[in-house]
Amino acid sequence: MEKKMTKPEKSWALYDWANSAYTIVIVTAILPLYFKASATEAGINAATSTAYWGYANSFATLVISILAPILGTIADFRGFKKRFFVFFSALGVVFTLLLAVVPSDQWLLLLVFYVLTSIGFYGANVFYDAFLVDVTTEERMNRISANGFALGYIGSTIPFVISIAIIVLAQKEIIPLSVSVASQIAFVITALWWGLFTIPMLKNVEQVYFVERVPNPVRTSFKKLFTTLKNIKAFRPLFLFLIAYFFYIDGVHTVIKMSTAYGSDLGIDSTTLLIVLFATQVIAAPFTALFGKLGTKYSEKSMIMVGIIIYIFICCYAYFLDSALDFWILAMLVGTAQGGIQALSRSYFAKLVPKESSNEFFGFYSIFGKFAAVAGPVLLGATAQITGSTNAGVFSLVILFIIGAILLLRVPNANEAVSMPPVTGQSKK
């Protein structure tokens, strides 16, 4: 297999470099801490503010879960895929930038803007993931998908380190800024980073596989959507994989989204949390690339199962967490598995779907992944509120991983499964 990546492959992978800064700064690290401080100032206790953060994540993913299969079906028509990608990525970038103008004491407005950035981020990812079939071959999908995640972990550390430096310098009063203003500058840096490195994707990646346009694409798309639902049910390996993915990826995304709020509830200071998250990104990059290589050598399914087992151990270990050292160990374990399990899930699914209907099927991939993510944060938040313990909330996620593992055992390896035939329309390469 040719080792050198093509320009479309590089440009596609570089978008992970671009938007992963959003994941760590906005979803995982700085904004959650900023929000927690804002909520505390308003008199909201730690467990309740963590629950609100979880509910906001659930609402955003619910919106995308409803839109994804509908817009994905329309995007399979010639010329629509990139238009939708541009719209959602622009939505995410703009509202990430606008987070910087929200006063630090307006915790509710922060949540509203965060929901809008999340809709943009996850909406763009539906079409970005679907572009994988356009930029590479099936033989290279594991490698290219893993390279995208690995680049994301590496690239995200740059704006993250800059943001941490500004915040720490503000905390120590070395620079004449408040911590709130320093955090707002971090939001601006993230938005600019995301927007700048999206440009290669816009210039060099095109929709190769598509369905020819029809006079009434919206009505035709709904008909095609219902046909797809029937075909998914009829195609057992794909259906089983989506159900398994529904459960285990919910746990993965919930751990990522709620980790900083969890650490804060344990009494770990914000500086330590930011350093731990930076170290997690550094660990994640080589392990993601390793998962990609091992997935090709053995199978995607085997390595996804390894990732699930690691996460089950993480949830169990989290129940007994009571120190900063424990949180360090937990974060390093997350770093070994989070990128690999996502990259191989994406490439496995891409090998199964008909290429000219990739947006449509990745819409369902998104609805199974993101709609599932409605349940995880709610499960964690509700358990934390009922028990009064965030540790118990994280432990409750083990249920999702166990169910996902059981279902995944029944799914054949990608090279043993037969890809679905085209649903309708024409394809072009």
TrEMBL record:
Subcellular location: Cell membrane
UniProt-listed Pfam families: ATG22
Keyword Membrane on entry: yes
Major facilitator superfamily (MFS) profile domain location: 237-429
Principal subcellular localization: membrane
Transmembrane segments: 12-35, 55-77, 84-102, 108-128, 149-168, 174-197, 238-256, 271-291, 303-321, 327-349, 361-380, 392-411
Keywords: Membrane, Transmembrane, Transmembrane helix, Transport
PANTHER family listed in its UniProt record: AUTOPHAGY-RELATED PROTEIN 22
Protein name, entry field: UMF1 family MFS transporter
